[in-house]
Amino acid sequence: MPQEHWLVERFQEHRGHLRRVAYRMLGSGQEADDAVQEAWLRVSQADAGQVGNLGGWLTTVVARVCLDILRSRGARREAPLDAGPSVGPERAVDTERDLLLADSIGPALLVVLETLGPAERVAFVLHDMFDVSFDEIAEIVGRSPEAARQLASRARRRIRGGPPVSGDLDRQRKVVDAFLAASRGGNFEALLAVLDPDVRLRADPLAVQTAAANHWSELTPEMQGARAVAGLLQGRARGLKPALVDGRPGGAWMMGGQLRGAWAFTLAGDKVAGIELIMEPERLARTEVELDPGEE
To answer: Model-level pTM?
Structure first.
């Protein structure tokens, strides 16, 4: 069987699953169909012959498309919630099936999902509804596995009515503020006090390259351990502005009014367990950064 025919048949076998993934992420049958169609365009141009787990790969492709759609909606536009797609001449739509799908998800859950950020929503839907691993989710949202786990956890708390988001943010902000103050002041002992003993620091390639150009050659792509990280980051947060990074307290580096870098934090209780230094333009574009009021 020719490769293109084989791929068409395999894609059709998975289409129902892919549409369920897209619907739960987007809350719109119309957009779910659009996402599946866009996924097919991407898949048809790729070499799928060597893919071991075709179903998992197709899910990843659809998830990336949905993440792009969620981000393109804009922070203030309400996304459509519907029971199924409008019928177009090029779509074979089972309206009754769409209605059953919407009922199975529940209108209340769809409404709550709309309050989540794009990365949160993708992480929650993939992990909690489709049992996708955090390692795989991390690749889709452009984060570390630890950060992907935090995204899903934060989404889960909102959906299940856990601790108030504002209170949780206040607690996180106090921890991050203590870290930033210690770093700006070059206070090694204060940094140790706020870092988890097994804290892991990651820096993307541009962050490492920029650090080396600015006489900070000690920065490497990955480092672990409180003493090593504390020694590395003494005095290094002086140029950061307080910000929400993917909905969590963090820091933003601005130059000429433009975002040039971000520090994202993963917390474990009242300790900093993970730090990501982000400067690559593509990663920054996938990162939601909101300066604290008065910092613009």
So the answer is: 0.53
Is there a contact between 183 and 233 (Cβ–Cβ < 8 Å)? yes
pLDDT at 264 over 80: yes
Mapped onto helix, strand or coil, the DSSP state of residue 138 is: helix
Phi-psi category of residue 215: left, alpha or beta, with phi > 0 → left and psi -120 to 50 → alpha: left
| Cα gap 240→256, rounded to integer Å | 14
Are 66 and 122 in contact by the 8 Å Cβ rule? The answer is: yes
Q: Kindly state the percentage of the chain with pLDDT values over 70.
A: 80
Proportion of the chain above pLDDT 90, given as a percent: 41
**Chain center to CA of 83:** 26
Structural domains present in the chain: 3-80+95-160 (1.20.140.160), 165-291 (3.10.450.50)
Q: Are 229 and 251 in contact (CB under 8 A)?
A: no
CA distance 205 to 207: 5
Contact assessment for residue 230 and residue 224, using Cβ atoms and an 8 Å cutoff = no
The percent of the chain in helix, strand and coil, each rounded to the nearest 5, is 55, 15, 30
